[in-house]
Amino acid sequence: MNVVVVGSGIAGLTAALHAHESGHEVTIVTKGDLGDGCTGLAQGGVAGIYGPRDSAAQHADDTMDAGAGLSDPEAVGVLVAEGASRIAELIARGVAFDRAADGSLQLGREAAHRHARIVHAGGDATGAAISAALVASVRRTRIDVIERAFLIDLVRVGGAVRGLRTLRDGVVSDTSADAVILATGGAGHLYAHTTNPAGATGDGIAAALRAGATVADLEFVQFHPTILASGPAFLISEAVRGEGATLIDEEGRRFVFDSHPDGELAPRDVVSRAIARRAAAQGSPVRLDATMLGAAALARRFPTIDRVTRERGFDWAREPIPVTPAAHYLMGGVVTDLDGRTTVPGLFAVGEVARTGVHGANRLASNSLLEGAVFGARAAAALTRPWTDVDHESCPVDARAHESRDTGAPAFTRAALQQLMWDEVGLLRTGEGLTHALRTLRAWSSSSSAPMTASAHEDANLLLLAEATASAALARTVSVGAHHRVDAHIPETGARSHAPSSILETV
Asked: Is 268 tagged catalytic?
């Protein structure tokens, strides 16, 4: 079978390697260089190794709790059942996870995990170690690699995806395939502030939408709580808080306990909103205090963070550092079954581009690398199986009938779109703000022209996804997980809503 994998993070590279090892003819098409993307930037680890008091069942429970009850239990079961095997595979491919003195894997803990069950490499360089090992594994094979090729669209023949159209060096070309595996990552650059690299513009999700694939849960955008509030976005790993660092306001008070009994180790959505509210109230960033860990421990455990914070003028071993939230991870995406199949025959999706159902309304820390490895392998294994319909109830979202103020929309620019999304479709949302955002986005869409360059295609994809995200957020009138409607009047510590998913078939 001729298989094209689009993307080269952990999900795409795992899928490509498994497909190649199963005898398929594999081509990797990637927007940048092989290995570019979010995986190589991941400071957090891979959850899935259990100590004597821990178990896969408890990992599943923590995942469901973090997902605010909206995670798919069957998908979560697959994730935790196959996690240890995928971690063992990464070790076999050359990933040197950190070890304790006795040679066993060193396990760390992060927010909303009840136990230490997370493996790291190089302290806070797990993603870089994984990416390097998988890229090296691909380079040792006969897998074809096409770098710096932009995905314009998927090609459908007789109702099935049978290839893709790309733009490379100014030339548009079509590549045929028996199956296409999307592994293009998320869409962090919908927002003015994000941890994502520049290429995270939602190209795969947008192409899947145009091809008729069902997309769900785009309203669930995870904002990482702790980004260094000085200079370009730089993530301060949740593992720092897992080791004992605290969040304090200008008076030195640990304010997150006002929102959740777990304080700094509460789910990410809770911590991010608590930080945003406190920073707004005091008119300055809150601070992350890791001084109790000591200079030697910080340098040993978090060498990358230690280096960058010092380069930016902070001695975090002596003083708390300013932090702020930023868009980090998309829980929604292209709807798939447990084997990565989408609602369009011939099209698979794995990694952040996919909505597997694992994350629900809020991703549990260190489950994303695990998800990429687990479902990347499963998609490759399913390539030769008969195509089955993906069971997902259709509930198209249309918010055009909602009334609100006129926008007086400014001229479209990417920066204007990102600021609009940050202000109205960000951490704290209202019906009025969402409707305003939708009207502005639709005004921009109606006046847009056919894209010609890669940058223009990115803008078109961001505009398409921004409208879909705002529409989904407006349709979900309750607060749940990462989606917080201020006008729903649900307290932070109150009951979580288990409302049904919002689905988009076309936009």
From this structure: yes
